[in-house]
Specification:
Layout: H1 45-51, E1 59-60, H2 61-71, H3 84-91, H4 95-109, H5 113-144, E2 151-157, E3 166-171, E4 180-183, E5 192-204, H6 206-209, E6 215-216, H7 232-237, E7 241-242, E8 247-259, H8 265-274, H9 283-314, H10 321-331, H11 336-355, E9 358-359, H12 362-370, E10 373-376, E11 383-393, H13 401-417, H14 425-433, H15 436-439, E12 443-451, E13 456-462, E14 469-476, H16 478-483, H17 489-504, E15 508-518, E16 533-544, H18 548-557, E17 561-565, H19 570-579, E18 589-591, H20 592-595, H21 600-607, E19 612-614, H22 618-630, E20 635-638, H23 645-650, E21 653-657, H24 662-667, E22 670-672, H25 677-718, H26 726-740, H27 750-753, H28 761-790, H29 796-822, H30 824-828, E23 831-834, E24 837-840, H31 848-862, H32 879-910
Parallel strand pairs: 1-2, 10-17, 10-20, 17-19, 18-19, 20-21, 21-22
Antiparallel strand pairs: 2-3, 2-4, 4-8, 5-6, 5-7, 5-8, 9-22, 11-16, 12-13, 13-14, 14-15, 15-16, 23-24
Helix pairs in contact: 3-5, 4-5, 5-11, 9-10, 9-25, 10-25, 10-26, 11-12, 11-25, 12-25, 13-14, 21-22, 25-28, 25-29, 26-29, 26-31, 28-29, 28-32, 29-31, 29-32
Length: 915
């Protein structure tokens, strides 16, 4: 008793086994669909027909209806879009939003209603912005989805078994296993099928394999055990099988449906691409979680420390709880969710409007900016999906335009006489390079179209001035042509060597030969392709994408390393790289057979210096991508075929063009209007723009806040009164947060766009600790200035003056932090550096950050003496204080600039992302 043989691995519809037994749940059984099986060989036509309980005449209408009711429609599982409310609720799970929510609850618990309301407002605004951006991206993606096919030509019979079948169009969704379908040029393959008959069939499988060249198919049976199907790539190479998602390039065929619906290879990839589990956290999500935990630890520690220290040293009890909560709130960047969402939403909206790039989730835009390695296939990105003629060589290896002339005659008359819908890519390239007027001088009489078995195409023409003579023009595979030429063996070897050298240089090679025959009316057959005269070789190369060279230069300037992962011949990929100016040394090219013998550690070491990975299967691409990520890189992967899905999922950022397979677009994080590297460069620039502003905000805010918290803790222990009232703490924090929102609309320094931007919690913690201590020193120096100005605090008036002096100093130091950490002193003063010298920057240096910092400083100076000051517990300050404060701020600015230069130098030495 034999089990079911799957025609479409790893899942196939089970069928009755030969000999009357049942090998699993079959078409003839009233069971459910069988589980996955592992095929060992392509079954013969007879085996397929028996196991599907069908025949060459197809199914009856009753059989088709019964199978459709039992097995379901032939449709790919649809992806359910999340609604706006669902997206809003999902955005509440953002770590920073959760932190703010906890602080809001604590504030409400201590009756700080103003603080609680402000925090709640910020949470709602952030969630609305994020949900709206992702909902807009989902709507754009829905507009890009296309049907795999709409109708198919199927042979169906009436319920009477003896009635001849009729061919009719039925919706693709109504196809069932066992149906016999007809395929012609331009048809989409509506399901997974096994060919019964085929004539000159070539199929585009780019949506499944990513290879642009059509694959030849035939219906010939394979002896049992002679073909292994252990991998998907081997499965797609089987000439007897065609798969849903592919299309017919040329020829015709009759085939029997072997798998439909969720059991097709296309649907299997769709299911694994979309996934039912929760997706892996992105680089941005992981960074945000790390930073959130840093803040949570600080906030959990701060209030107890304030309470215990004041209780132990000053005898204060729960009356300091509002102040402790205010200190914790002061440590938190409340505007971060709003600023992050605003930065990312503005960048994503600009990309969609200006460049047709759709970012499906807002955090992905930051990950795009952090990409430092971009993996892609050669075809369609570095090169176009078409070849161009490189050279025409005579038998001596020298340029010979006559060879191109005969090749064009063959291409033209084969197209005209063989009733082909359109020339194939190679013929089209030859015709583009030839003189059309010369072709019109010939009169074609017959054609023998290309056959994947013969690997030749022949045109028979009447040569002008040669009455009674027909000229056979043969073009095709080099070996096939040479075998049919009248040549000595040593000459054959010499020509094979000439062709091999061209192929090793990354070129496609066609041979051309002619023969003269007496004119006749009898039909020409492949038997006439003998005794030919070898004319020469036509070499073709992939046409370079017109924008590829410029885009590669931009990516290089952005610090992105491009790596080519392709299934092509290594020479072809290397040549395309060299033509585009990408240096490819011998040790920078790795083939799949070498990859298989390497451990992950060895592959990681080689991947650092490897530019081209050739002969790659989907598994190789996914493994290389994973290894690069493990080595610490942020990896983007551009793919358009179902075979690219594993690598798309393995990458930090999966990128797909709009015309990619539907399942690939669903699995990608970023969708491009065109398969163009320029669009990726724009996306990386937008991501770095947003990421740079987010990182600068975090550095400026957290370092300043940490310094203030340290100073507050110290002052609370040194002073007989609270160093600042809770309302004053919250007011200064609100002013600073409002000013920091300017970072969302800032234009980063050009240096930010030249290096990957990534939020690294350890680096950020190091930064805010160092700069926070510097800020705390400035605050403590201000205490000294206040002590000198007041001759020792202790009275009520002294308390108000102390509060006012520190309130003013805090806002001024925070304004300095915004200016000097973001744009430096020259740009803050309206200058820019060009060629090592300072020049006037005009209005460019005075962006939103400069104006926001100026407003913050004005509030700090003008609020205490204003009529609003007494309402907030503030009072005018003595003139001596302002003189001493100026000296403190000048020293603070010098220290800040020195620390910034030291930090930049160390970052540059480590090769990490700078400002």
């Amino acid at each position: 008793m034999s089990g079911p043989v799957a025609v479409s691995a790893p899942v196939a519809v089970g069928v009755p086994a030969p000999g009357g037994g049942q090998g699993g749940a079959g078409i003839g059984a009233a069971g459910t669909r069988p589980g996955p099986v592992v095929p060992t060989a392509v079954p013969t036509v007879l085996e397929v027909l028996r196991r599907l309980d069908s025949g060459p005449r197809g199914l009856t209408e009753a059989q088709a209806e019964e199978r459709l009711a039992r097995l379901g429609e032939n449709t790919v599982p649809a992806r359910r879009e999340a609604s706006w409310p669902r997206l809003f609720v999902r955005s509440l799970r953002d770590p920073f939003t959760a932190v703010l929510g906890c602080l809001g609850l604590v504030s409400a618990a201590v009756f700080a209603w103003g603080t609680a309301l402000v925090i709640l407002f910020l949470v709602v605004v952030s969630c609305v912005l994020r949900a709206s951006g992702e909902h807009r991206a989902d709507r754009s993606m829905a507009g890009l989805r296309e049907l795999v096919a709409t109708t198919a030509t199927v042979l169906r019979r009436a319920d009477d078994e003896d009635v001849a079948p009729t061919a009719r169009e039925v919706p693709v969704s109504e196809l069932v296993p066992g149906d016999v379908v007809r395929l012609g040029p331009g048809d989409m393959v509506p399901a997974d099928v096994r060919l019964l008959r085929a004539s000159g069939l070539a199929v585009h499988q780019a949506a499944l394999t990513g290879e642009s060249a059509p694959a030849g198919k035939n219906a010939d049976d394979v002896p049992p055990g002679s073909a292994g199907l252990g991998s998907d790539s081997g499965l797609f190479e089987e000439p007897q099988l065609c798969f849903q998602g592919s299309s017919v390039a040329s020829g015709s065929a009759t085939a029997i449906v072997t798998a439909t619906g969720a059991h097709t290879r296309f649907a299997t990839a769709h299911g694994s691409g979309s996934g039912t589990g929760r997706p892996e956290a992105s680089a941005f999500d992981r960074s945000v979680q790390g930073i959130s935990w840093i803040l949570i630890r600080f906030m959990l520690i701060t209030p107890p420390l304030v309470l215990m220290a004041n209780a132990a040293l000053r005898g204060r009890g729960l009356e300091t709880l509002p102040f402790a909560v205010a200190v914790a709130v002061g440590l938190t960047p409340e505007m971060l969710p709003v600023l992050v969402t605003t930065c990312l939403a503005r960048g994503a909206s600009l990309l969609a409007r200006a460049h047709g790039v759709i970012v499906k989730r807002l955090p992905v835009l930051h990950d795009v900016g952090a990409v430092d390695v971009l993996c892609l296939d050669k075809t369609g990105t570095l090169t176009q999906d078409r070849p161009v003629v490189d050279r025409a060589l005579g038998p001596d290896g020298q340029d010979d335009p006559e060879v191109l002339h005969w090749a064009a005659v063959n291409a033209w008359w084969t197209l005209q006489l063989a009733d082909l819908p359109e020339p194939d890519a190679l013929d089209e390239a030859i015709l583009d390079a030839a003189d059309e007027d010369e072709l019109m001088a010939y009169d074609g009489t017959a054609a023998i179209p290309f056959d994947p078995v013969r690997r030749l195409a022949t045109a028979v023409v009447r040569t002008p001035g040669r009455l009674g003579v027909h000229t056979l023009v043969v073009k095709g595979d080099v070996e096939a042509v040479i075998e049919r030429c009248a040549l000595a063996e040593d000459e054959r070897e010499r020509l094979r060597g000439l062709a091999a050298r061209q192929a090793e240089g990354g070129l496609r090679v066609l041979a051309v030969a002619t023969a003269e025959r007496p004119a006749r009316t009898r039909a020409y057959t492949p038997a006439d392709e003998r005794g030919l005269t070898f004319r020469g070789l036509v070499t073709l190369r992939d046409a370079l994408a017109p924008t590829a060279a410029d885009a590669l230069n931009v990516l290089t300037d952005q610090g992105v390393t491009v790596k080519i992962l392709t299934g092509d011949h290594p020479g072809t990929a290397a040549r395309a790289c060299r033509d585009l100016g990408i240096p490819v040394a011998e040790d920078a090219l790795l083939t799949a057979d070498r990859i298989d013998g390497l451990t992950d550690a060895e592959l990681a070491a080689l991947a650092r210096r490897t530019t081209v990975f050739a002969r790659c299967t989907p598994e190789h691409k996914a493994r290389i991508t994973t290894v690069l990520r493990t080595a610490g890189h942020t990896v983007g992967f551009l793919g358009d075929g179902v075979n690219d899905l594993p690598a798309l999922r393995a990458a930090d950022v999966g990128i797909a063009p709009r015309d990619a397979a539907d399942v690939v677009r669903e699995g990608a994080d970023v969708v491009l209007a065109e398969k163009d590297l320029t669009s990726i460069a724009h996306a990386i620039g937008a991501g770095r723009h947003a990421g740079g502003n987010i990182a600068t905000y975090l550095r400026a805010t957290l370092s300043s806040n940490l310094g203030n918290v340290i100073a507050m803790l110290g002052a609370g222990l040194l002073l007989p009164f609270l160093p600042m009232l809770p309302a004053q703490v919250l007011l200064q924090n609100l002013c600073f947060d409002a000013a920091q929102l300017a970072f969302a609309y800032d234009r980063p320094d050009p240096s930010v766009l030249r290096r990957p931007t990534a939020l690294r919690p350890r680096d950020l913690l190091r930064f805010i600790t160092g700069f926070g201590m510097l800020n705390a020193v400035a605050d403590l120096a201000t205490f000294g200035a206040l002590a000198l100005a007041l001759h020792g605090p202790g009275t009520g008036d002294d308390e108000a003056v102390f509060h006012s002096g520190w309130f003013t100093e805090n806002l001024l130091t925070q304004a300095l932090v915004m200016l000097l950490l973001r744009i430096g002193l020259p740009r803050a003063l309206g200058f820019a550096r060009a060629g090592g010298t300072l020049v006037t920057a005009g209005g460019r240096g005075r962006g939103p950050v400069v104006w926001a910092a100026g407003a913050l400083a004005a509030i700090g100076l003008l609020l205490p003496p204003s009529p609003l000051g007494p309402l907030l517990g503030l009072t005018p300050l003595p003139a001596a204080y302002y003189l001493m404060l100026t000296a403190v701020l000048a020293l603070y600015a010098v220290g800040l600039l020195a620390a910034r230069r030291r930090y930049e130098r160390r970052r540059a030495e480590r090769g990490a992302a700078a400002w």
